[in-house]
Amino acid sequence: MDIPSLHRQFLADTLPRMRQDPRIVGVAIGGSIAEGRPDRYSDVDLIVVVDDDAYDAVLRERLALIGGWAPLVAGFTGEHVGEPRLIVTLVGPPLLHVDFKFVRLADFAERTEDPAICWDRDGLLADALAQQPAVPSELDLQWVEDRFWVWVHYGATKLGRGELFETIGVLTHLRDLVLGPLAARRAGTHPRGVRRLETAAPDAAHALRATLSGYDRHEAGRALLAAADLYRQWSAGAPVERRRDAEKLAVQYLREVVDDLG
Is residue 136 part of a domain? Predict the structure, then answer.
């Protein structure tokens, strides 16, 4: 596995310490390292597979365990990304971002992509992966269509009121949840917000520059209009029930707000 020296040294130091806990049945790694394209800025995404009977006890001890495995600088649980099994950490120095996701052996086979197994105490991880294939996450195009024009209208209300921080936040939301994933889908890659979009879909990334805005009402208005135009282009032909009334009324409202800016 060809990985940067900092990441390699972390794994060489940490994995043997993890192996000493008999409750840990194996460790796998995901993300860019598993995909074979890490760089010096990559995170380390570890999947810590725990014996089912010991899982609750291990979960209670997670931060203390990590502190024994690695030089922990900071760490917190991952509820903010909808993953309470996750501990997000900084280890070092030198600083390295490492995610430790603790899963039951019984749940390890449920995955959206195949990890690389770092070590496997009794072959249990390999057996689990062989039981069922990965199920890639898919962008729910109808879910997006049902919401997009409501979000555009919301952004227009913030623009009209002069709440530019809120407006810029709406633009970020539209890129992360809609436009970035649509661009990735068109490029044949996994939808992950706008992550690595500059390399995965450079033309789309260039087009998305029109949705960026500084602290300026006219810029923000143009960016919202550009976001609406890109959504129309990139979702064209999608097998969804279009919310045409919402689209027409939201865009009309946005244009009126922009026109009122002078």
Answer: no
Q: What is the dihedral of CA 2, 4, 10, 13, to 10 degrees?
A: 50
Q: Structure pTM? A: 0.87
Q: What is the residue-level pLDDT of the chain in tens, covering all 262 positions?
A: 689 999 999 999 999 999 999 999 999 999 999 988 899 999 999 999 999 999 999 999 999 999 999 999 999 999 888 899 999 999 999 999 999 999 999 999 999 889 999 999 999 999 999 999 988 888 999 999 999 999 999 999 999 999 999 999 999 999 999 999 999 998 888 778 888 899 889 999 999 999 999 999 999 999 999 999 999 999 999 999 999 999 999 999 999 999 999 8
If asked whether residues 115 and 10 sit together in one domain, one would say: yes
Q: Which domain holds residue 189?
A: 141-260
Sorted by sequence, the CB contacts under 8 Å of residue 7 that are 6+ apart come out as 33, 38, 42, 44, 96
CATH number at residue 76: 3.30.460.10
In contact, 24 and 49? CB cutoff 8 Å: yes
Q: For residues 182 and 153, state if they share a domain.
A: yes
